[in-house]
Amino acid sequence: MKISYNWLKTYIDTDISIDEISSTLTSTGLEVEGVEEIGGAKKYLDTVLVGKVLSTIPHPNADKLKVTKIDLGDGKETQIVCGAPNVAEGQNVPVATVGTVFPTPDGDFKIKKAKIRGEESFGMICSEVELGIGTDNSGILVLPEDLKPGTPTSQIFTSEEADKEIEIGLTPNRADAMSHFGVARDLYAALKTRDINATFKPYDVSDYPTTDFGKNPISIEVKDTEAAPRYAGIYLKNIKVEESPEWLKNRLKVIGLAPINNVVDITNYILHDLGQPLHAFDADKIEGNKIIVQKLAEGSKFTTLDGVERELKGHELMICDEKKPLCIAGVFGGENSGVTESTTNLFLESAYFEPVTIRKGAKAHALNTDASFRFERGIDPNTTVDALKKAVLLLTEITGAEIASNIDDIYPNPIANFNVKLRLAKVVELLGVEIAEDKIKAILENLEIKILAENDGVLDLEVPAYRVDVQRDVDLIEDILRIYGYDNIEIPTKFSFSYIPNQKVSPDKIEDFIARQLTAFGFNEAMNNSLTKREYETIFAYPEGESVAMLNPLSADLAVMRRTLLNGLLENVAFNVNRRNTDVKLFEFGKVYGKINDKYEENKCLGIVLSGNFNSESWTENVRKSTFSDLKGLVQQIFVRLNIKVTEELPANDKNFLDGIEFISGNKSLGKLGIVDKKIAKKLGVSQDTYFAQLNWETLVSLANKNNLKYKDIPKFPGSRRDLALLIDSNVKYEDLFKATKEVKSSLLKSVNLFDVYEGDKLPNGKKSYALSFMIQDENKTLSDQDIDALMQKLIKLFQDKFNAELR
């Protein structure tokens, strides 16, 4: 949110500097993210002087350049080479002299003495754009003839008031501070609490005439008083729509708004001044001379100010006349009801709309406006009429408007202030610091919170209705702290606490542990949106209707919740490959969502994607492509680090994989990995082989906490390795051999490994060769050859009997 310093000063008067104001605002929770100088004379214009063109001749070596002689008021003739088509003898022009420094987005640009196509040039004749005062870059700026040569242009171009733009990072809960008045009110409370000299100057509408202006020719009917608790309107005539005065345009420019016309500018001014959105209707376009506040049937059509025809959902609050809707209340105006240059009569609306209703209407049509931003969060219901009066006073002053009716204020059920009890002892309990009771009461008073009663250290308080973020005692304590000052809370030098050992490892620690492991393997972490495209339902072969669809999607790309982490990671791969980063290693911790048998499911997963080369180009080793085994090894390392035993590996039943496996531990699925179907990858823009694993993270965490690590001494006696080369049938898998070794039931066999596979024309048809290694070790003694040979004979017989294996 942008705040004008000059505007802020209309409500608060203090001697402290802008830096101190920024610091105070930040300490109260209104974090100042930056302060920028706006308007006023630009410093670099001090060395841009008025020059009179004495003569121009064509450049001898360039058709489009001219050599000019300029009088800069110093009694000399200054030569400048100029390429502007409109430079002519006798003109007064702005001349940037040697040494002038222009600020540009790419850094400072300094004017230097130069030689252009062989002719010396001692400066530059400038256009509006180069001076930073306009947008016309078709030629040089021609100045009035009565200006004296040598006059600094800083004395000429000072149309905008010097001001400072304060950028505030406003948190969503601070609806009360969404205006200059609100910020000033909060700043004053902090300054007064901290005994800093300041005077608060509330807005004043006492000049509003008390004359009876008669009945409003536009009658108002509020059919939905829950969605529109308060609605006020007034009729003005003889409006003259034209350009706003400079002071009003400058106020809006400082906060980043473009002036439109005096009527619209005044409504925008009141919105940012008091935080009360207003809406101006061309009264002559209101059919039936009646305003009806209501909800229309679902499917009704309405064309908004931007020319888009929208289909209503049925929950939007609409402002209508007797025949048609005029605007979506609190959100966006209609195409044919707004103020134009021909408008002469005006119906001005000021209202308090129920926040949830406005939020639903804005989200349903993806419309985010300054008005909806405030209505959605809750404005002050007690400012409605005062804001209307202040706008009317400005309209009568600036547009010549005549007040043609009394103000209609429909407010059947006034919104009450909030009643909250505060136990003073709880302030100390939560803050950990003693704040004097008188100080607490003073802070509450400065925040316009009334103390209704006090009984045994408990305060009965009345919180103003505009403080929608203060509903509980803890909210009050937070308010007390921010006004008291976070910096005033001393940091203790010693902490005392009781240590309670936790038998389980935190899921966050486990996640960080595995993330660090993957990072050490050269992976980068990805973070993708949980919302994705509806078309991915069919691309990734998920049954129709199992995706969780958004009721009001912001766009087609954010229509459903993701079923898998694969689509986001594949998009990441495509993004990198398209930028010539073809070697991709990514992982992501994220949730996937589904609707199975009409029940919603949400599960956290770990996704890992591998594509391109596995290692970088180096003089120490050759580059090689990533393989299925690389990803499988990484996943198995995760299981090892979490002390999870895989009891079974099954073929992955997943149509997204060309080939894949599923890891099982007991009766629980740990996850799947495989090579991504090339047709699917190609649809997402990936043409190279890509390997993907998705692990059921919650299952892994539960097993990691269940399978506690056990420690044992390093064996004192050496082990021995034996190798076997087996000729087996082609349909026998290594997994089958590995499982069979468990049948030997020997404590001496520590590990089995497949280190070579051969399939070729030198072997009989239907056969292949596996080379296995066996690590054999006795932890209590040195093994003898007889012990080792006995175990190996058991293994050989097992392979022969069960798989018809032959030794090679």
Short description:
The protein is an alpha+beta fold and 808 residues long.
How does the SSE layout of this entry go?
Blueprint: E1 2-4, H1 5-9, E2 12-14, H2 18-27, E3 31-38, E4 48-58, E5 66-71, E6 77-82, E7 92-96, E8 101-104, E9 107-110, E10 114-116, E11 119-121, E12 124-125, H3 128-131, E13 163-169, H4 180-193, E14 198-200, E15 219-222, E16 230-237, H5 246-254, H6 262-274, E17 278-282, E18 290-295, E19 301-303, E20 309-311, E21 317-320, E22 325-328, E23 332-333, E24 346-352, H7 355-364, H8 370-375, H9 384-398, E25 402-403, E26 408-410, E27 418-423, H10 424-431, H11 437-446, E28 450-455, E29 458-463, H12 473-484, H13 507-520, E30 524-525, E31 531-532, H14 536-539, E32 560-561, H15 566-577, E33 584-596, E34 599-611, H16 628-641, E35 648-651, E36 657-665, E37 668-676, H17 678-683, E38 690-696, H18 697-706, E39 720-729, H19 734-741, E40 749-758, E41 767-776, H20 785-803, E42 806-807
Helix pairs in contact: 4-11, 5-6, 6-9
Structure description:
The protein folds into six domains: 2-40 and 162-200, Phenylalanyl-tRNA Synthetase, Chain B, domain 1; 43-155, Beta Barrel (OB fold (Dihydrolipoamide Acetyltransferase, E2P)), CATH 2.40.50; 219-410, Phenylalanyl-tRNA Synthetase, Chain B, domain 3 (3-Layer(bba) Sandwich); 418-482, Phenylalanyl-tRNA Synthetase, Chain B, domain 1, CATH 3.30.56.10; 507-706, BirA Bifunctional Protein, domain 2; 720-807, 2-Layer Sandwich (Alpha-Beta Plaits), CATH 3.30.70.380. Helices cover 25% and strands 28% of the residues. The chain contains 20 helices and 42 strands. The strands form twelve sheets. It has a seven-stranded mixed sheet with strand order 30-33-34-38-37-36-35. Strands 6-5-4-7-12 form a five-stranded antiparallel sheet, with no helix packed on it. Strands 15-18-21-22-23 form a five-stranded mixed sheet. A hairpin with a 2-residue loop joins strand 33 and strand 34. The model has no long low-confidence stretch (mean pLDDT 90).
